[in-house]
Specification:
heterodimer; A: about 260 residues; mainly alpha; B: alpha/beta; Rossmann fold; 6-stranded mixed β-sheet; 4-stranded antiparallel β-sheet; globular
């Protein structure tokens, strides 16, 4: 296992790329110069910090510490998916559901992975648990955010249709079915497209990383196939959970569509 | 306000119903009982609480206090979908669903897994004066036609009670009269009807019992049509 080291001076050369983008921004008067600089600094600081943190974590690998890290990641993912919803309930109502939807989707993918496919020794080996869990959680986070946004926006714009369907004897499931289906489909389609095009245009980041660090391409490919299949399950389960939870927030147990203020 | 008993046992009954939003009494202790074939019209300005009261009768809104009874049974003890197929509620400017008029009319039975025959759909449309329209795209109809499709769609569930929110508000006078004539005929065929409107003359032209709503209460009542058989 050998790879070309990136020394700090060489890392600094990469700043040139930011400078190029800044130059384009200045030339075309895009007004993105400061955003680029802030973004570049944040990316570097966050990644360097996580790099040091991983070094620390690998050196002090304890079950409780790894689990704490995973829980913190889950919390951030759930918070992110529940934030910035234009319509729908406030964070306080939404967060427990977001946690369950992101956590449920990620767990469906991760439990079989770590018990049957990639079995780490010891079971809490951070080198496997942290990055692989992170990938699944961030995918679940995006799906949950997207489904919540769509379903709550729909409940607002289609309020009269939903209420008329309820009045005709529809259950809350029937009254929202066409829209919740569309929301889960929309969340799944990018993942399915990923399955179809992977390897044809770009090599996935994780596979690229493994190959660069010396893993045999055959093994890197196997990891990648597992990841891609997992992502489909994550999207399906998180999406389905998010629609179910959204419905629970939107309707009373007596199949009444709640008013906006009641949601908050 | 005391209950006003109609002929025959009450089908739908509201007992001292209250609904409050942030300290404001939207519906403030309203009671009403409605017998088969009876028409009750509720007139009131916007914000008087009449629509909220109708929505409570339809179990679309849970009252803070009070009870809704269907044939003497507390609505809370009845499965919502069962209650709502027996007590039909047509929203103000009720939206048309995708598809044809026939698709729209057959919605209620379809939700219960039943297919409505073409003959039954035609009969339902005939009842509201829209014979021959079943193949048209529902959303392309005129306002008056849509309102009558909404009526036929509600009737497809064969309800005992019909709750109508401003069925004539968006219509020109002749379309409004046509809708009112249909409602009158439905009541004559035994359906209990509650119709909410802000147009006093529409309410009065239907006959039956007439209630005036103000600030969530019934402030006036009159029996407009003693000749009702």
């Amino acid at each position: 296992m050998s790879y070309v080291e990136v020394s700090l001076p060489r890392l600094a050369i990469a700043l040139l790329f930011i400078a190029i983008a800044c130059g384009v921004s200045w030339r075309l008067r895009l007004g993105l110069g400061s955003a680029l600089v802030v973004g570049a600094i944040r990316a570097a600081v966050q990644l360097i910090a996580i790099g040091y943190f991983l070094v620390f974590l690998f050196a002090h690998e304890r079950a409780w510490l790894v689990l704490t890290v995973l829980i913190a990641m889950l919390l951030v993912a759930a918070l992110t998916s529940a934030r910035r919803l234009e319509h729908g309930p406030g964070l306080r109502v939404l967060l427990p559901y977001a946690l369950a939807a992101v956590g449920g989707g990620a767990a469906i993918a991760l439990l079989p992975l770590f018990t049957l496919i990639v079995v780490p020794h010891p079971w809490f080996e951070a080198r496997y648990l942290v990055p692989l869990s992170g990938m699944m959680m961030s995918s679940a986070m995006n799906v949950v955010a997207q489904v919540f946004e769509r379903v709550f926006a729909m409940a607002r714009s289609e309020r009269a249709v939903i209420e008329q369907l309820l009045a005709l004897g529809a259950s809350s499931v029937q009254a929202t079915q066409s829209h919740t289906r569309a929301a889960v489909r929309a969340a799944l389609i990018p993942t399915i497209n990923g399955l179809v095009t992977v390897g044809l245009v770009a090599l996935p980041g994780m596979m690229t990383g493994q190959i660069l660090s010396g893993t045999a391409p055959g093994q890197a490919v196997r990891y990648q196939v597992v990841i891609m299949y997992q992502l489909v399950a994550v999207a399906a389960v998180s999406g389905a959970l998010a629609t179910r939870f959204a419905r629970r927030m939107l309707f009373t147990p007596r199949e009444q569509l709640r008013r906006d203020p009641e949601l908050r | 306000m005391a209950n006003i008993e109609a002929g025959g046992p009450p089908r739908l009954e509201a007992r001292d119903v209250r609904f409050t939003v942030r300290g404001r009494h939207i519906v403030d202790g309203v009671s009403l009982s409605l017998g088969a074939g009876e028409v009750v019209t509720i007139e009131g300005a916007s914000g008087s609480g009449k629509t909220t009261f109708l929505r409570i009768l339809a179990t679309q809104v849970e009252p803070d206090a009070g009870t809704i009874l269907l044939d003497g049974t507390d609505a809370r003890a009845i499965t919502p979908s069962v209650f709502r197929t027996r007590v039909a509620y047509v929203l103000q400017e009720s939206p048309m669903f995708d598809g044809t008029v026939a698709d729209n009319v057959a919605t209620g039975p379809r939700l219960r897994g039943k297919t409505m025959s073409a003959g039954a759909i035609a009969a339902a449309l005939d009842r509201v004066g829209l014979a021959g329209l079943s193949g048209r795209i529902a959303r392309e109809l005129s306002g008056g036609e849509r309102q009558r499709v909404a009526l036929a769609r509600a009737l497809a569930n064969e309800p005992d009670v019909l709750l109508l929110d401003e069925p004539t508000s968006a219509l020109d006078p002749s379309s409004a009269q046509r809708v009112l004539a249909v409602v009158r005929a439905l009541a004559d065929s035994g359906l209990a009807v509650v119709l909410v409107t802000h147009v006093a003359e529409h309410a009065l032209s239907l006959g039956g019992r007439h209630l005036v709503f103000e600030e969530g209460r019934i402030v006036g009542t009159a029996d407009q049509r003693p000749e009702t058989t």
